[in-house]
Amino acid sequence: MPIQKRILVCTGMTKFLGLKTVEERRTKSWVTFRFTKATLLLILFCFVPLALHAAPLSLPALTVQPGANGEQTYSVNLQILIFMTLLTVLPGMLMAMTAFTRIIIVLSILRQAIGMAQTPTNQILIGIALFMTYFVMSPVFNKINETAVQPYLAETIKFPQALANAQVPLRQFMLNQTRKNDLSLFEKFAQTNPATLNDVPMSVVIPAFITSELKTAFQIGFILFLPFLIIDMVVSSVLMAMGMMMLSPLIISLPFKIMLFVMVDGWTLVLGSLASSFAMS
Q: In the chain, how many domains are there?
């Protein structure tokens, strides 16, 4: 049978069975594409005039306007931007400018001295440290609220003045906990020679405060380690004298450490000593 007749026969069978040829499928796809395109263009032309006549949505510029007596007034958007930026650096500020560093380091050393790697868990230690930090820093926070936050909310002072007022009690707290040697060291690095402590810039006070807090935390941790170290040495010596060298001393000493810590009311002593260490500074 010639090729043309075969094509005609196949086309007739396809139409008889209700099937579509390749050309018909291509034609239908092209028609569908053209219809979809026309529909999208129609929708676009309908909604563009509405968008053009809508009220423009714009935010006020981030501006700083000079005021009376050399003061500067920040726009609301700029104040919001500064506030959001402070929220992002809040964890760093919490660790660097409050009592949190000393407390969390001492609690971590205490857990290691007892010999329990995961008890209390990190979440519990951080929770204890946060609430202890709030307890220790409450006078500072109250002072900041009275001198900076409330006057600013009442619109009696400007935003820069509120920031300056908030630095005063926080600076005083950090200077009370900072050693003179650490402060002198960072003043030397910064090449500054302030006449009084109130003239020391925050860029010098903060690193000096962190250095002093680390040193104080490790000193307290060393004192906490000593009684538990003595228990480990005694248990290890007894086990070696009994010839039980294959038995780990940590397994035997852990119950005695826990018993000693509970009998002397260790948590009250540790947390109370931490709180009083800030009060006596």
A: 1
